[in-house]
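The protein record quoted in full:
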Amino acid sequence: MIILTTTYGDIEIELNMERAPVSSKNFLRYCEEGFYEGTIFHRVIDGFMIQGGGHTEDMAEKDTHAPIANEANRGLKNTTGTIAFARTDAPHSATAQFFINLEDNDFLDHTAKTNNGWGYAVFGKVTSGMDIVKNIGKAMTGIKKGHEDVPLDTIKIEKVTIVD
C-alpha cells in the first residue's frame, strides 16, 4: 500500500502487481525514490479525474525515467477510484504522471492495439481517502504557465509512505 500525504489529506492506494506489474513497479520505483514528494496535482477536472506526479509548484516538469510499456490491455478498467498512468498521444509513453478517476471513464479503457484504442493503464485503486480525492476534484482551477485546469490553490503531495 502507498499513502500519498497531500495538503488536502491522505490518499491510500493499493497497487495491482498481478494484473499490472510493469506499471505498479514503475509507480513504486518513483515512490521509493521520493520523486513524488513536492509535486502537485496540476490538472483537475471535476467529474473526470485529478492528475499529478510530474510538476513542481512553479509548473516545472520533473525529469523522469524512460517510458514504460502500456498495460491497458490487461483488463483493468478506468472506474471510479482507480489510478492510471497519464501519457502523451503515443500509447507507450507513460513515465511518472498519474491520474485518479473521479468517475467511471470507460472511454479511457483499452479497445484495440492502435494509437487511438490503446487506452490508459490502470495499476491500482484508492482504498481510503476517496473523500480527499473528490475534494481535490472540486478545487477551483485556472490557467498557469500555459497549463489549463490547474488548481488556483496549490495541492501538493507532501510525503509518500510505503506500507508493506
In short: The first strand starts at residue 2 and ends at 6.
